[in-house]
Amino acid sequence: MRAMILAAGLGTRLRPLTNALPKPLLPIAGKPLILWNLHLLRRHGVTEVVVNLHHLGHLIEKELGDGSRFGMRVSYSREPVILGTGGGIKAVEPFFEGQPFLVLNGDTLLELDLGAVIRFHEERGGLATMVVRDDPDVDRWGVVEVDARQRVVSINGRGGATADPTGRLQRYMFAGVHVMHPRLLREVPSGQESSIIEAYVREIARGEAILGYRMDGYWSDVGTQELYAQAQQDAEAGRIDLASRR
User: Fold this and answer.
1) Which terminus in the chain has less CB density within 10 A, N or C?
2) pLDDT of 9 higher than 50
3) For the domain bounded by 2-238, which CATH number is listed?
4) Which pTM does this prediction carry?
């Protein structure tokens, strides 16, 4: 399976740290943040990756190169204008060759069994699988409702799929990792900024199976200077271990 790492964001909440360095290159335990996710992919057998770039993207490309020193093949999608998660993924659609693929955020630190996510997706046969997680502040992140069949019923109150009447809905937040079939991109406009969440909401409303895979491991969006400092402490304390990914 091929993968995309989203790395085109501006990292505005981390300024001034991101004025001269893109967020995916901020060091965690001495290694750029994006490398943690690159190693996570490789650990689970994913070796062909495309990375989208915008803010200081040339520095990311310089750091990763063609991926060969990591045992991977890395290519790039350069966005003169940010296309968002929908437009950014749509721009590299040919890279996936019509097959399901993984998407990760290049600026999120997490511990996750990607192999289990892929197996879940393949066994359930959905159009896409969103990795979700519990969070005490789920309303701030945006609520993903998942029914007893592990199908996503709504995202931020939108979608309107019929839930399994035999079970309660669970309220989660989206962890920023997903597996999807390129068919999900069929109505995403090319060359325009959009969110992939719009495609999810559209397909949920049509009755397509968008699945929710609940993760339990470490997760941080490293979105503020406080969270960045905490992530560094967590890595130093061994709560997430880059060494196991080599």
Assistant:
1) C
2) yes
3) 3.90.550.10
4) 0.92
